[in-house]
Amino acid sequence: MFFAQHMNMHRIGLLLALAIFLALAFHQPGLPGLHYDEAREAGLNAMEILTGAPITAFRGVGVTLGGRTFPLMVQDYIGALNVYLALPFLAVSGVGVPNLRILSVLCGLLVLLLVERSVSEWVAWRRSDSGFAGKTVAAPMSTAGLVAVALLAVSPSFVFWSRQGVFVTNLTQVFVFLCLWQVVRWLRSGQPGALIITALAAGAALYAKLLAIWVIAPLALLTLWGWALLRRQGNAPPVTPYILLAAAAAFAAPLLPFFWFNLQTGGAFASIGGSLEQSYYGVDNLAIGANLLTRLGQLVQVLRGDHLWYLGASFANVLAPWVASIVVAIGAVRAPRIVLPPLTLLGGAVLLSIFTVSDLFITHYALLQPLVLAITAIAAGALLPAPTATPATRVYGDSKAWAPLLLVAALLVAAFTIDLSNSLAYHRALAQSGGLADHSDASYHLAYYLRYNGMGAPIALDWGIDATVRYLSEGAVTPIEIFGYASPLAPDEAFAAQVASFLANPDNVYLLHSEQATVFKGRAEVFHSTAAALGLTPRLEQTFAQRDGVPLYEIWKVYP
After folding, report:
1. Share of the chain above pLDDT 70, in %
2. Is residue 388 classed as helix, strand or coil in its secondary structure?
3. C-alpha–C-alpha distance, residues 466 and 44, integer Å
4. How far is it, in rounded angstroms, from Cα 16 to Cα 21?
5. pLDDT tens digits, 327-352
6. Sheet holding 551-559, edge to edge
7. Whether residue 129 has pLDDT greater than 80
8. Which residue among 181, 209, 473, 533 is least enclosed by CB atoms within 10 Å?
9. Rounded mean pLDDT of 428-449?
10. Nearest alpha carbon to residue 441 among 164, 119, 254, 166
11. β 73-75/459-460 pair status
């Protein structure tokens, strides 16, 4: 009876944590404004498919049906899975920003459930014995699993990245934690189906976004190493050629669109090969030490949660990194066989993250932040005595054994409370700011103005405008991007000639960011100098600002 009551309390706690997350993640869902990557990686193609507009498949590669080409990828290293998953939500509720974010929030909810299962499965296996347990029943919900969900449910990083999930492709989180859960389940139960699902989830994670390899690669190595140790002891899960063949097929199936795309374009391979020394945005990939320090700093920052400045303010939980460090250190000393393997997995992922094809964006760590809090919860749970059927048979030890547990509990409660307070504070700031910079709701006003003033094909002279405006205007406005993706650090020689060709038409409208909001530098200067050389005078027609008055978007025309 005691054990049943224990499980019921866990379920109530889980439901409460999920409810808190949903309340935080889907409050004022239209804010912050739609980010370019949110639109580009899901909304734009989904809107085109639903409205019957021409589909702008990435690099023009896709599956052609009925004369329309449906995309396989949305970037060289990001699959189009978000596009197709967004379709039913937009079809039912219409094209809009909250409508698109329903998918992202539900993905965050699924991640919480998978984190609980991954942690509980791991704890159940490692507490039973060190080898194959042969247990096919589901692992009971653990205190560690509940702690992991509670910490994530109120974490500002998890909450606000989840509501903009396509911006950071949180589908990788879903498949990575499905993979983690099932690989532990396979080691614990020996069920062939668990290994096949593991492989399927790994392939899907890589298709969702290739950076999932940060976790998938070290996980594969750790699994092979662990299985070899168990085999030497004579208690490893059985593996047959048929199981391996099925697992290989399951892994490859989600990656078929990725390989088909790259056979035709070579995009991902060229992107990786061209970034071995220096990335697209100029990051030195050979500066291993400096990049590692940057990534470690970002790991601390996502725990503090003060990187979300674009919501209108920054609120830091300075206690959070210390809590994670102290709890993991105590857990590693007290229960190394439970804590050290997942900690090794995190270490491998951090090391792989120092290489980038773009930039060392902190948003990449949306993949690792749930893993950090899961490890923290595992370490905390390792200090608890294993629950038994009745209170009378539980062994708690002397009072000295409870001292670390009480310290850890106090630290976790404090971290939870501060994160919850900070998430609420971010919502208050967001209600005032509407979002800042690329996340400002000023883009809504820009799209509306262009749509209802007959400016259907403006010339975009900077990154971050096209996909957002096209989605928000439901395809009525289709900006023409000419800033040149191939040269992000400065305009190339052909840019001036391209600008001149558009200046020949006095009816053209030009879109720029304000000086402080410009992403691809140098384009505005070339625009003005080229116009002057042709005897034309650019005139600022309209400006769109953040709610605090800082200008973001500019509409220009040229006159004799």
Report:
1. 94
2. coil
3. 10
4. 9
5. 999 999 999 999 999 999 999 999 99
6. 480-481, 459-460, 510-513, 551-559, 537-545
7. no
8. 533
9. 97
10. 164
11. unpaired
Q: How many CB atoms lie within 10 A of CB 285?
A: 16
Which residues, in sequence order, are bridge partners of residue 559? 537
On whether the CB atoms of residues 412 and 380 are closer than 8 A, the answer is: yes
Is the model's pLDDT at 491 over the cut of 90? no
Distances (CA, A) of 439 to 35, 36, 464, 518: 5, 8, 10, 14
Predicted local distance difference test score (pLDDT) of residue 387: 54
Helix (H, G, I), strand (E, B) or coil at 95: coil
Q: ∠319-323-325 over CA atoms, to 5°?
A: 120
Residue 214 to residue 247: CA distance in whole angstroms = 20
Rounded to the nearest 5 percent, the helix, strand and coil shares of the chain are 65, 5, 30
- DSSP annotation of 317 reads -
Query: What is the Cα–Cα distance from 259 to 247, expressed in whole angstroms?
Result: 18
Three-class DSSP category at 67: coil
Angle at 477 between CA 475 and CA 479, to 5 degrees: 115
Query: In sequence order, what are the beta bridge partners of 123?
Result: none
Which of 314, 461, 368 has its CA nearest to residue 176?
A: 368
Which one is predicted more confidently, 276 or 309?
Answer: 309
The predicted pLDDT at position 134 comes to: 60
411 three-state secondary structure: helix
Q: Which two tokens stand for residue 347?
A: 């270490």
pTM: 0.93
Q: Do residues 407 and 327 lie in contact, with contact meaning Cβ atoms separated by under 8 Å?
A: no
Tell me 284's DSSP state: B
For residue 510, the surrounding DSSP H or E stretch is strand 510-513
